[in-house]
Amino acid sequence: MAERIQVELVDDIDGSPANHTVTFALDGATYEIDLNDAHAQQLRAVLDRYVKAARAPKPEPARSTRQQERAEEQARQANKQLTEQIRGAAQRTREHLSKKAADRPEPESVKQPEPAEETLFDTSPAEEQKQDAARVPAVSMPQFSSAVD
């Protein structure tokens, strides 16, 4: 079975049959519009003043495949070096913290206070507070440090 596909251009302004597909660019965006002869002429007439005053952009030199490969290789090398630097810094930090932990003296064991002897004499409230404070074991707070001292 044979199939025939027909493409019919329709003017994007008024829906009449179009004869031209006009391509133009503005602000870095490229556009296409299908126009009949009259509308294509009107568009060109409006833009003619601006086209005459404009300059053609300088084309960027095309990079060869070899240049692209070289640039990609340099980027990979830079990433590899950066990764090695980060790993080295992490290793130095671990070593620094390990050494710091090894140099830290062992915490002294907390001695439990001996049971208070019964007193036969009355004590003042200030003396009772001192005795209560002596019974409370000292608690050492954990010490935090940054990786870099």
UniProtKB/TrEMBL annotation:
| Region described as Disordered: spans on this chain | 54-149
- Looking at the Swiss-Prot or TrEMBL record, what is one Pfam family this protein matches? Lsr2
Output compositional bias ranges, type Basic and acidic residues. Answer: 54-75, 92-111
Q: Cite the GO molecular-function annotations of the record.
A: DNA binding
Enumerate the spans annotated as Lsr2 dimerization domain.
1-55
- Its domain of life reads Bacteria
- Full protein name: ATPase subunit of ABC transporter with duplicated ATPase domains
Source taxonomy: Bacteria, Bacillati, Actinomycetota, Actinomycetes, Pseudonocardiales
